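Supplementary Methods, section 5.1.

A reviewer requested that the exact input to the structure prediction be made available. We therefore reproduce it here, unchanged from the version used in the analyses.
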Amino acid sequence: MRTAEKMFPIVEDWLASGQLQKDYSHEHGIPKHILSYWVCRYRRSQEVTDENATGFTELKMGVPSSKNIELILPNGIMMSIPTGSLAQLSPSHLHRLLQLCSG
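The structure derived from this sequence is encoded token-by-token as follows.
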């Protein structure tokens, strides 16, 4: 019987390999449909683990590619915020700014 404890390391090995599922399964003697099934299960388990209690996912920013971050609101308003000022912008200020723009 295949279990997550046995199959998740195989899925992680496949992910690291960069191979197509078809090629990896053939090389390792695993039916492709079995690997596909466990890849889906693995990805679903990662989605659940990655979310925090509020349902938000943390966004990690690398080096900005421009000097501004642009937000486009559903009503079409575009906000451009200088990246240097992001550290000074509290969540409550951003929330208030979005309220004013959508308003």
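The chain has four helices and two strands. These observations are discussed further in the main text.
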